[in-house]
Design brief:
The chain has 242 residues and is an alpha+beta fold. It has 7 helices and 12 strands.
């Protein structure tokens, strides 16, 4: 099962890259057999990948005619619970992603994060702040807290200062244990002074905040994060597998 899920995610990632680079809004994609050859997977895998992308609004499937890259509506669809890198989701939607600001600092761990990470409040931990822009407009502010060490390995999250590395990719390499599951809690919030400065919205502007905790093997908490989203730039979807 794990091998199949890995192959499915890899095929989905390659198809997203193709949509972001070789196919554009309104273009018809190759048929399932051609895509299977191109992605080096089975037609069943292609059908499943296309079904997922259709549910997310990345492609539009018309029975008997074909599959087309969907015309973007000005907002980027982001599916909560999907570990696809944010940069790839933005690119696949026909927009330009950028990491407009990013910092890594060693801080005293806040109480709500410390409990999750198995630390004592005030213990040192890493804080990673990243501000993502869509077409040069600030859209998502992410603040993650991570322990200094996981499974006897020192963590160095400085690679997250680049858009080329996302949190899930970093943890898989740095800890030797990929994120096995994530718990996400959504809440409507109003922009405070910090979010006003980060996202360029007025104080009190409505935003969506997702608190996300990523777990590795043995339910070890690997990070505790807050993702604050401008919903006039991105749309959020919740997808549950059956």
């Amino acid at each position: 099962m794990a091998r199949r899920e890995t192959a499915l995610k890899a095929a989905q990632g390659r198809l997203r890259e193709l949509i972001g680079s070789e196919f554009h809004a309104g273009d018809k994609l190759p048929n399932e057999r051609e895509l299977a050859d191109l992605l080096e997977v089975s037609r069943a895998t292609v059908r499943e990948v296309l079904g997922q992308l259709s549910a997310e609004g990345v492609v539009r499937r018309t029975w008997g005619i074909g599959t087309f890259v969907h015309e973007p509506d000005g907002r980027v669809p982001v599916t909560i619970g999907d570990v696809t890198a944010l940069r790839d989701r933005i690119t696949a939607s026909g927009h330009r992603p950028a990491l407009s600001d990013a910092t890594v600092s060693r801080v005293h761990c806040p109480g709500h994060c410390a409990e999750t990470l198995g630390l004592t409040p005030g213990d040192p931990c890493w804080r990673v702040d990243r501000l993502f822009a869509v077409d040069e407009v600030p859209a998502v502010f992410i603040r993650d807290h991570l322990p200094l060490r996981v499974a006897d390995r020192d963590l160095d999250p400085s690679g997250l200062l680049s858009i080329d590395l996302d949190m899930f990719e970093f943890l898989a390499v740095a800890t030797g244990m990929p994120v096995r599951r994530a718990e996400i809690e959504l809440a409507a919030v109003l922009a405070d002074d910090e979010l006003t400065a980060r996202l360029g919205v007025p104080t009190g502007h409505p935003l969506i905040n997702a608190t996300q905790i990523g777990y590795g093997d043995g339910d070890v908490a690997l990070f505790h994060g807050h993702i604050t989203v401008r919903t006039d730039i991105l749309t959020l979807r919740i997808s549950r597998g059956g």
